[in-house]
Structures are given as structure tokens and as C-alpha cells.
Write a structure and sequence with these properties.
Elements (H helix, E strand, L loop, with lengths): L2 E5 L3 H10 L4 E6 L2 H10 L4 E4 L5 H7 L5 E4 L3 H13 L4 E3 L11 H7 L2 E3 L8 H12 L1 E13 L14 H9 L2 E5 L2 E5 L6 E5 L3 E7 L6 H4 L5 E8 L3 H10 L8 E3 L2 E3 L1 H13 L7 E12 L5 E11 L8 H18 L7 E3 L2 H4 L2 H13 L4 E7 L1
Parallel strand pairs: 1-2, 1-4, 2-3, 4-5, 5-6, 6-17, 7-12
Antiparallel strand pairs: 7-15, 8-9, 10-11, 11-12, 13-14, 15-16, 16-18
Helix pairs in contact: 1-11, 11-13
Length: 379
């Protein structure tokens, strides 16, 4: 039995801690006592600890005896927290999805003899793992990931609920979207190239450009066409564009009745209640990953993995927590079982390229009811 420390007790962090507790001793930490108390009511086999990860000395002292750290802190804290963990010489699985380039810490991780698997959620995460595996099997020309987390009940006007902060969601709508076309990195505004697509179990959804390729822009530069798009219910994009074009996402300070605020702060405050996902509110995750290229027989083949997952009422675990968190705990157990021993910083595609690891992820997720359905066809 290993000692695992999970940093961050939010929806995904708590789900990971509970999952890891089936085999290991787990300490769940958070800066908020109320957040920890809520998890304690759900699972009392965990150890709980108040911790502010921005205090580097205390963080390094806390993780000193840990066999593995799982990092699920908010994105704006992610890079520095990961750096502190690596500096402490601790192996880590990270899902904080920070905007910085994690590969900048690769040399540090190698110097410290650390394995750091980053971006290990559903997307980025499982889509990278699929891509990494098929990049070894085929000469790929195309990669596409379509992904979204949605409420089961559509509530006008946005028909959307977020399992995390509205500020993080809004960043998807404001950060320029990078994709690769004919070998060139193209940058476009988010929310562009909107398309309507059909999905089993759910019907019509709309897709739009978002900045989700992340590490594969650097690790898979030989693939000429790569794109990630976010999925929402039809109509959502138009409402978001209205807010965006009207200045509601601006970070420029304005004065209102003697107080200084930014429109983004105001908008986030309003949308927090509108988008807040209830603890037992049913939601779903849908993803379609497509790779295309020349297979070992010299034929052009298209391989598609479809995911449709729903909130689990039995464990009261959100679909986003299941699909994101269990990918990360699969990586954690994979590492602890000695199936991946390389040192450095590894985005998921560099782990999934190993057939043993790829199959481990799919089996681990399937055991927890998160099932990826594969289809393929020759073109």
C-alpha cells in the first residue's frame, strides 16, 4: 500500500482521492475546510489536511513522505505547484491544465529523477493517449478531437452547466485557438468555425474552435492536420458571442459607483449561479476522437473512438469527474505498478504510445463504466 497525496478537493480531486483509496493510503488536501468536510461526509476512509499550496515550504514538507502526488489545483496555480512538487523530487500526476508549457519543466524533472505525467484528464488526456498509440501504429495525417461536458437538462438561455469556475470556462471562449492545417500552426479566435454534428444518445450538438491541442503541437509536429473543438448544445455559441462582443469578458478595470471592477469579474459572478452544477445534478460527457492515416497494410484508414458518459447516481460522481479523474488515477496506478518508469515531464501522448499503457488506460476506465467505443473504416 502506497501513500498518495491529492492536492485539491474539488469535484475531480475528491473523485480521484476516493478512487485511489481502494488500494492505497490517501491524504486529500485543500485550502478550504468546508470543501474537505463535504468530502469527509461522502468518504471517511481518507485522511484530510488543510493546505495552501502557494506556501512552497509547507507544501514540500507535506509531500515529503508521499510515494506519489496527484495535483488537481486550479489552473492559475498549476504550473508553480507542479514545479514545487518536482523540486521536492516527488513523482506526480497532474490535471491542473495550466496555460504555461509543462515541457519547460522537463529538464528539471530529469535532474530530480522525477516522473511527471501532465494534462492527464479526458481532453486533454485520453484523446492524447489515443493519438499517441495510433501514431506508433500508423503514418497519421489527421487528428480531431470533439469534446464537451453538458447538463442533461437544458436550461435557457445557455443550456450549460460548469463543473468548475466560470472564469475557466470563459477562458475557453477568449483564448485564441491554435490548430494545425497542412503542417502550419493556425491561430483563430475561439468560437469560430461553428458546425452542427450528430452524436448517438444525444442528437445534434454544435462544435467550435478552442485551444485544446496543447502539447501535441510540440510533440506531434509531423502530423499535418490536427484540431480540437468544444461541443455545446445548439444556440450556446451565439449567446456567448453576444456577451463577448459586448465587452462582458473584458479584463479592463472600470469604475462603478466608486468601486473598481472588471467586466469579467462581474460576468463571472452573475454566471456562477447560472452555470453552477449541483452536487447531484445529472450531466454528461461526450467525446469523439478521430485519427486518419496509412496503416501497416498501406491502406488509408480512419479510426474513431466515441465516448458517452453520464453522472453516476450510485456513487454520486459527476461524469466530468469520472472521465477526467479516472484517467488520472489510471495513470497513477499504471506508474505505481511499474508499467511506466521514464523520467521527465510526459504529456499523455508520450505515455499512450506504449501499447501496454494504452490498453491499461482503456481497461481501467472500462472497469469503472467509462467506455470508449472504437470503429474503423478504410477510405
Amino acid at each position: 500500500m502506497k501513500h498518495i497525496i491529492v492536492l485539491g478537493a474539488g469535484m475531480v480531486g475528491s473523485a480521484m482521492a476516493i478512487d485511489m483509496a481502494a488500494k492505497h493510503k490517501v491524504t486529500l488536501t485543500d485550502v478550504n475546510l468546508h470543501t474537505l468536510e463535504k468530502v469527509k461526509q461522502k468518504c471517511n476512509v481518507l485522511n484530510f489536511l488543510l493546505l495552501d499550496v502557494t506556501d512552497k515550504e509547507i507544501l514540500q514538507e507535506t509531500i515529503k513522505e508521499a510515494d506519489l502526488v496527484i495535483c488537481a489545483v486550479p489552473g492559475f496555480l498549476g504550473f508553480e505547484t507542479l514545479k514545487t512538487i518536482i523540486e521536492a523530487g516527488k513523482n506526480v500526476i497532474d490535471i491542473s491544465f495550466f496555460p504555461e508549457n509543462s515541457l519547460e519543466l522537463d529538464e528539471l524533472a530529469k535532474q530530480k529523477g522525477v516522473t511527471a505525467i501532465v494534462d492527464c484528464g479526458v481532453a486533454p488526456g485520453m484523446d492524447n493517449i489515443i493519438l499517441g498509440y495510433y501514431n506508433e501504429q500508423m503514418k497519421l495525417t489527421d487528428f480531431e478531437c470533439l469534446v464537451g461536458g453538458l447538463p442533461k437538462v437544458k436550461k435557457w438561455p445557455f443550456c450549460y452547466k460548469a463543473p468548475f469556475s466560470p472564469v475557466d470556462v470563459i477562458e475557453e471562449y477568449t483564448r485564441p485557438a491554435r490548430y494545425v492545417e497542412n503542417g502550419q500552426v493556425i491561430t483563430r479566435e475561439a468560437l469560430t468555425d461553428c458546425e452542427y454534428l450528430e452524436f448517438d444518445n444525444i442528437g445534434t450538438l454544435e462544435s467550435f474552435n478552442s485551444d485544446g491541442l496543447r502539447s501535441i503541437i510540440y510533440t506531434m509536429p509531423h502530423i499535418p492536420n490536427m484540431k480540437e473543438k468544444t461541443l455545446r448544445y445548439p444556440g450556446h455559441v451565439e449567446y456567448i458571442k453576444v456577451l463577448k462582443e459586448s465587452g462582458f469578458f473584458s479584463e479592463e478595470i472600470i469604475e462603478l459607483k466608486g468601486a473598481e471592477i472588471t467586466p469579467l469579474d462581474f460576468t463571472s459572478k452573475i454566471l456562477f449561479n447560472e452555470w453552477k452544477l449541483g452536487p447531484t445534478e445529472e450531466e454528461l460527457t461526450v467525446m469523439r476522437v478521430t485519427v486518419k492515416g496509412e496503416n501497416s497494410d498501406g491502406n488509408i484508414e480512419e479510426v474513431v473512438y466515441n465516448l458517452y458518459d453520464e453522472y453516476c447516481p450510485e456513487t454520486q460522481t459527476s461524469s466530468m469527474s469520472r472521465t477526467t479523474g479516472y484517467t488520472a488515477t489510471a495513470a497513477a496506478n499504471l506508474f505505481l505498478e511499474g508499467l511506466f518508469k521514464e523520467k521527465g515531464v510526459f504529456p499523455p501522448e508520450l505515455v499512450g504510445k506504449h501499447e501496454t499503457c494504452f490498453k491499461y488506460f482503456l481497461k481501467y476506465l472500462e472497469e469503472r463504466g467509462v467506455i470508449y467505443k472504437k470503429t474503423s473504416r478504410l477510405i
